[in-house]
Prior knowledge:
Elements: E1 57-61, H1 77-82, H2 84-90, E2 94-97, E3 101-102, E4 114-118, H3 125-137, E5 141-146, H4 156-163, E6 176-177, E7 200-202, E8 208-210, H5 225-241, E9 245-248, H6 286-298, E10 305-308, H7 315-320, E11 329-330, H8 333-336, H9 342-358, E12 364-366, H10 375-379, H11 387-390, H12 401-415, E13 421-425, H13 446-450, H14 494-498, H15 504-518, E14 525-527, E15 534-539, E16 542-547, E17 559-563, E18 577-581
Parallel strand pairs: 1-2, 1-13, 2-5, 5-9, 9-10, 10-11, 12-13
Antiparallel strand pairs: 3-4, 6-8, 7-8, 14-15, 15-16, 16-18, 17-18
Helix pairs in contact: 5-6
Amino acid sequence: xxxxxxxxxxxxxxxxxxxxxxxxxxxxxxxxxxxxxxxxxxxxxxxxxxxxxxxxxxxxxxxxxxxxxxxxxxxxxxxxxxxxxxxxxxxxxxxxxxxxxxxxxxxxxxxxxxxxxxxxxxxxxxxxxxxxxxxxxxxxxxxxxxxxxxxxxxxxxxxxxxxxxxxxxxxxxxxxxxxxxxxxxxxxxxxxxxxxxxxxxxxxxxxxxxxxxxxxxxxxxxxxxxxxxxxxxxxxxxxxxxxxxxxxxxxxxxxxxxxxxxxxxxxxxxxxxxxxxxxxxxxxxxxxxxxxxxxxxxxxxxxxxxxxxxxxxxxxxxxxxxxxxxxxxxxxxxxxxxxxxxxxxxxxxxxxxxxxxxxxxxxxxxxxxxxxxxxxxxxxxxxxxxxxxxxxxxxxxxxxxxxxxxxxxxxxxxxxxxxxxxxxxxxxxxxxxxxxxxxxxxxxxxxxxxxxxxxxxxxxxxxxxxxxxxxxxxxxxxxxxxxxxxxxxxxxxxxxxxxxxxxxxxxxxxxxxxxxxxxxxxxxxxxxxxxxxxxxxxxxxxxxxxxxxxxxxxxxxxxxxxxxxxxxxxxxxxxxxxxxxxxxxxxxxx
Length: 590
Ligand code: GLC
């Protein structure tokens, strides 16, 4: 840990904001030090920037809810192509597109029926190729979503397995087992589905199959050579089409213990008790062999990368996925889940930086995604309230959206200057809250059904995003939106925020631009001295200070680059943050 007191003076801008409390420099920062992440060197993409992900900003597109190009109420590739100006205006390096494959959409497309085709609702392969090429011309890469733990029950392999007898080759691609009890009437073991209920369902001839998620998502058998070969070929298919890598769904899944032993009821696999690779279904040692095989394909494509969605018990376990020859990156759910608290945030940053660097990787920072309650809403609730539980009838008076918005703005300045890469979930750049009051009859997430209505599910963070102040579905499309949008979303639209000087949208754009110009691939990072309920760090040429406390904070000396909220008497307000320009000395690596 390196403590350092910054010594830079505040330089006043020549072109002052009329509201002086928002005063930030408008001078041109010319010290870009030949920053390799400058977009000009990315356009057109040459493949030269082979390790681009180490400091990238990636924008997550939940296709169904991004923009509807054909007026059927569902987002699609045509809609995304039509909105690439918005994505480019953010200054991001890549787009990660949630699953777009042929699918019954029982789990938002994470139930894949054909891994080599695009769902007609979203477009076709020609459109996917056009999207990749158009994005590439703008200096933006496209990352696809790979779903290897399970297929859809509509996948040809599963249909063939149902038609084939017990013990057949067709069934050996999945986990079919005889049941327990005299008549085999009880499931083969006590494993539970992540979405709720038993992880086994019985087919007509009495055999049972495993589904760790929805009943329509049978788990593949990764001990089967044909399964392994098939995924190598799927990787090649999409890399040949031009994607720059994959977000790998349930990277901690796939492998199962061959004895299928009981786990003793509902046991949380994130419990540190399981942090030894001994769980029969999650985070098993064998999953590392699988990714090593994949690298044999991925490494043939310059600039291609793999980012793991791995829910594991600790950073010790997660770092194993990032060892040389394995994943290039992994999402950090410990940081994402941190309460709004300086100590917790700091220790989670420390853990992530130390663990990733110990294996030569870099951290990733994300605050939201399509599976969790949007962070603006999480930050708007008291720290001891579980946002997921609160969705289901919690006290609405606990929600303070102004507070959530202030914190979400400060969180931009907290995360965007950290070393490593940042993942932004569509709509967070507009400050969208969770839509917490969706009526039960519109809920689509299998979590709602499978949990027996004890968990509301993830629809509230998947509501189509607003583009215009008014009009059909606020510009999402001409035919309404598949989930209802709240009436106040017109005010949060891209159109509305484009004209507001201090909008969330401008904050994201400005932060990403400064980050690109002042940080680049630089990984030098050090904490600075700060009050107990504040965080301050220096990374490259940026000092970031975030106030988690209950009184305004002194601003470090130096040129103010960016503020999340107006200063109060020259000080950083409660739940506010600031960036100060700190050229010159380079802090040592932690
Ligand atoms: C991942 C996805 C989630 C999906 C689940 C099952 O966690 O992010 O949306 O439901 O895998 O595929």
